[in-house]
Design a protein that fits this description.
The chain has two helices and six strands, in the order βαβββββα. By secondary structure, the protein is an alpha+beta fold. Bound molecules: zinc ion (ZN).
Length: 124
């Protein structure tokens, strides 16, 4: 069952406040335009307000910073990168999933670092 909507009329007051914090964090993240097909979503089952990109990666607020939210499709464990320290892989696929996720995330961070460097050089 999919209880996710992008219809802002279905967001309550709390969700709209969460959405505004999320959009501010996104605007401040220096990643504007890097995540393609980005949408603002609300899941009424989990209560989560999140951004989702064209690859269905999920981004949420973690202490006022925007971070990718991971979901291990093998064992159902979910959380931010830090939370995955507590993820106990149940099998090889589980382990592989986590490895893939975090290697990819490192690749993204490297790109962002380069991006930030090029922007700060432009501003000099
Ligand atoms: Zn797992």
């Amino acid at each position: 069952m999919n209880n996710t909507t992008q219809d802002l009329s279905e967001f309550g007051y709390i969700e709209l406040m969460e959405a505004s914090k999320l959009l501010k964090a996104y605007a401040d993240s220096h990643n504007i335009g890097e995540l393609k097909g980005l949408t603002l979503n609300f899941n009424s089952s989990s209560g989560f307000v999140f951004l989702s990109d064209e690859d269905l990666r999920v981004y949420m607020l973690n202490n006022d910073k925007i971070e990718e939210w991971f979901n291990c499709s093998y064992c159902g464990f979910e959380g931010f990168k830090d939370d995955f320290k507590d993820h106990k892989p149940k099998n090889a696929e589980c382990n592989e999933f986590v490895k893939d996720c975090f290697e990819f995330e490192n690749a993204i961070n490297e790109q962002n670092d380069n991006y930030n460097i090029s922007i700060s050089e432009v501003l000099k």
